[in-house]
Structure prediction request, 68 residues.
Amino acid sequence: MDTPTRAVEKALAAAGMNRAELSRKLNVTPQALSRTLRVEQVVSQRSLWPEILKELGLKVVLVPESES
Prediction:
């Protein structure tokens, strides 16, 4: 199973988009997006993850560790 960051990278490639374009769509700086992608904590009130996932049509799926 991919990490959230790897899933974003794959979705960006599939969409023909790069990080700079995504940061413009989210109205954040490229630095803020890079900081977010370095942190694997998806659930946080201040996190950009919900917006990133929504923009790329991704969702968080929780599975038991035994299945990963």
